[in-house]
């Protein structure tokens, strides 16, 4: 669990204000942060990373206090277990793809380097320099580099924003796979509904330094009950106001079942 409580004066486009954010993030979740330009999304990531310090605040990550202004705790950025990917992440231009990962890794021999190269589909380009990569390939490397130290928190600031739609989609899929495998608690700043739809467990809207809306994106539970609207005994098929179902051969099929009855759907196969 990550607990954030942050307060910082900020000059917004329409004048002086205050960023004031309280958020709890479930471990292993992927939360999308969205909202108008200048709302404070990047600032929130920078505060979490330790690149900025709030006037008043507390950050606790899995029980470790990274920041507590009341007791003057402020763990420096290098000691916070964080991976960061920006819109245009800078790789070291003089190093190959593999060297970029090895440099960020805890040990240059870490087996995770090659595992990540394979996961991002860039094994064959491992000995190329960043200059010889496309924008999408560079972002893949940036994502792998952010994960190679097995951080507790992954911060992604519009990582697909500079990519064309097809490249963005393939990187989104890579991110989805990596998130499923590594389960790194992730904050993703995005303007894209597609990112939110495909990747996020939860979406938090930021407006002028505050949480405006905070929605759990867990799928609606499957309805267990429905009122029959159509009944086709011959074909073993019925529809209710909540779903369509086909009866399995072994399912009981009460003789007196009729349109308007409310039925439990749990014993039937969804179609
Ligand atoms: N280093 C800074 N010092 C002071 N104010 C800043 C700094 N960086 C950004 N701001 C201001 O803080 C506010 C929030 O900026 P921030 O970059 O966090 O917004 P954002 O929601 O990430 O926007 P965008 O979607 O355009 O990236 C803006 O009004 C911005 O001008």
Automatic annotation (TrEMBL):
UniProt-recorded Gene Ontology molecular function terms: ATP binding; ATP hydrolysis activity
Domain ABC transporter, residue spans: 1-233
UniProt entry keywords in alphabetical sequence: ATP-binding, Nucleotide-binding
Matches recorded under SMART domains: AAA
InterPro entries xrefs: AAA+_ATPase, ABC_transporter-like_ATP-bd, ABC_transporter-like_CS, Molybdenum_import_ModC, P-loop_NTPase
PROSITE patterns tied to this protein: ABC_TRANSPORTER_1, ABC_TRANSPORTER_2
This protein's record includes keyword Acetylation: no
Pfam families recorded: ABC_tran
Keyword ATP-binding belongs to the record: yes
Origin: domain of life: Bacteria
PANTHER family: ABC TRANSPORTER I FAMILY MEMBER 10
UniProt-recorded name of the protein: Molybdate transport system ATP-binding protein
Species of provenance: Runella defluvii
Lineage, highest ranks first: Bacteria, Pseudomonadati, Bacteroidota, Cytophagia, Cytophagales
């Amino acid at each position: 669990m990550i607990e954030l409580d942050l307060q910082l004066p900020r000059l917004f486009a329409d004048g002086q204000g205050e960023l004031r954010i309280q958020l709890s993030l479930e471990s292993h979740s992927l939360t999308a942060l969205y909202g108008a330009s200048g709302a404070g999304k990047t600032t929130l990531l920078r505060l979490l990373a330790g690149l900025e310090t709030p006037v008043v605040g507390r950050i606790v990550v899995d029980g470790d206090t990274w920041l507590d202004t009341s007791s003057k705790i402020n763990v420096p950025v290098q000691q916070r277990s964080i991976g960061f990917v920006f819109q245009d992440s800078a790789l070291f231009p003089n190093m190959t793809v593999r060297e970029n990962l090895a440099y960020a890794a805890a040990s240059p021999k870490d087996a995770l380097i090659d595992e990540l190269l394979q996961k991002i589909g860039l094994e064959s380009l491992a000995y190329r320099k960043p200059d010889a990569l496309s924008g999408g390939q560079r972002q893949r490397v940036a994502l792998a580099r952010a994960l190679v130290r097995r951080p507790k928190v992954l911060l992604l600031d519009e990582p697909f924003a500079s990519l064309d739609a097809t490249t963005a989609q393939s990187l989104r899929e890579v991110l989805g796979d990596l998130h499923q495998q590594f389960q790194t608690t992730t904050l993703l700043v995005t303007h894209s509904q597609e990112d939110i739809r495909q990747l996020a467990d939860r979406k938090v809207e930021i407006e002028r330094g505050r949480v405006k809306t905070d929605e759990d994106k867990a799928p609606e539970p499957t309805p267990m009950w429905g009122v029959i609207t159509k009944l086709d005994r011959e074909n073993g098929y019925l529809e209710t106001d909540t779903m369509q179902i086909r009866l399995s051969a072994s399912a009981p099929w009460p003789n007196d079942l009729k349109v308007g009855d409310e039925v439990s759907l749990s014993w039937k196969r969804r179609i």
